[in-house]
Write a structure and sequence with these properties.
Blueprint: E1 2-4, E2 7-9, H1 42-48, E3 78-81, E4 86-90, E5 95-103, E6 140-143, H2 154-159, E7 166-169, H3 171-174, H4 177-190, E8 194-202, E9 206-208, E10 211-213, E11 215-218, E12 221-224, E13 228-236, E14 250-257, H5 274-281, H6 291-299
Antiparallel strand pairs: 1-2, 3-4, 4-5, 5-8, 6-7, 8-13, 9-10, 11-12, 13-14
């Protein structure tokens, strides 16, 4: 049982053996095909779709924590990289394992929200989650990359409404401390900071308006409901680049229960270490950093 402030979070049920793969050299970064839009939006489709995989993405600059690949046989760790973000998709769970993105002021605008849409970039034969799969479940269609993090250009706004960027969140999680942290990260971006963020879910089973659920959606294609939501944000000061990351770099890490009753909680009450998230998920974060810097940053808990 972990206790921080007045908030209790039971992590024991989500613990799994830690799989740390220290990499002294840079991790190979892979791109895959991205989504398309409906007929009549050809110009927007061209801006969202990517060509064959290349070897560079700002959104994977700090590593590929699960070593996801763009191979269909790797169906529960399937890499999708778009101009707007990168993610590892889990076909069995019908949600992303994690989504990673870079954030600075250039991504921020005032465009209205786009409609939720199935992701047509998923391989043929894979189920494509629809917005209706969430209807009546009591869970929010929760963004991993927030809508407001990508609303400067129409193609960016649409990209975060593909259902592969969505996971079931309790309303109190999504609209409470999770949203507050999202807003705080955008405030930092407007102040000139550059952030490298990765987020996902952990465990099985959350609680929403209609009570506890482990899955939602159709019987033949259930969508996994995570027990907790986590986020890691590496914050660079104005003018800094990735080469400036050191032991004094700020890293904000949180894990929050995917339950009701937390809407009025402060996101700071849920701060943890990167090490904790690695233990829970089995992923290896910040793997491209020198080992001594990686280990130092992963062990500390933000207190600003």
């Amino acid at each position: 049982m972990q206790k921080r402030g007045n908030t209790m979070l039971n992590l024991n049920s989500m613990l799994k053996p830690r799989k740390r793969l220290k990499r002294a050299i840079s991790v190979g970064l892979v791109l895959s095909l991205a989504g398309s839009l409906a007929a009549g939006c050809a110009q927007l489709v061209a801006q969202v779709l990517l060509p064959a995989p290349t070897l560079d993405s700002a959104h994977l600059a700090l590593g590929n924590p699960s070593e996801a690949t763009a191979e269909t046989r790797n169906e529960n760790n399937y890499l999708i990289v778009r101009p707007q973000y990168a993610l590892s998709y889990n076909r069995s769970k019908n949600i992303a394992n994690w989504v990673s993105w870079q954030l600075d002021a250039s991504w921020l605008g005032r465009l209205p929200r786009s409609p939720f849409m199935p992701d047509p970039s998923l391989p043929q034969g894979w189920y494509r989650v629809t917005p209706n799969d969430y209807t009546g479940s009591g869970f929010d269609r929760g963004h991993l990359v927030p809508a407001a993090d990508r609303n400067a250009r129409p193609e960016d706004s649409q990209s975060v409404f593909w259902m592969t960027n969505i996971f079931p969140q309790s309303p109190d999680n999504n609209q409470g401390p999770w949203e507050e942290l999202e807003s705080y990260c955008r405030t930092l971006a407007r102040q000139g900071h550059t952030l490298y963020i990765i987020a996902g879910g952990a465990g099985e089973g959350g609680t929403a308006r209609n009570g506890p659920r482990t899955t939602i959606g159709r019987a033949g294609n259930p969508i996994s409901v995570p027990a907790a939501t986590w986020k890691i944000a590496v914050v660079l000061n104005p003018g800094q680049t990735l080469e400036d990351i050191g032991t004094d770099t700020r890293v904000i890490t949180v894990i929050m229960p995917n339950d009701m009753g937390i809407k009025d909680k402060d996101w700071r009450d849920y701060r943890e270490s990167v090490d904790t998230i690695e233990t829970i998920t089995g992923y290896d974060f910040l793997a491209v950093l020198p080992d001594e810097i990686e280990e130092f940053l992963e062990a500390k808990i933000d207190s600003r």
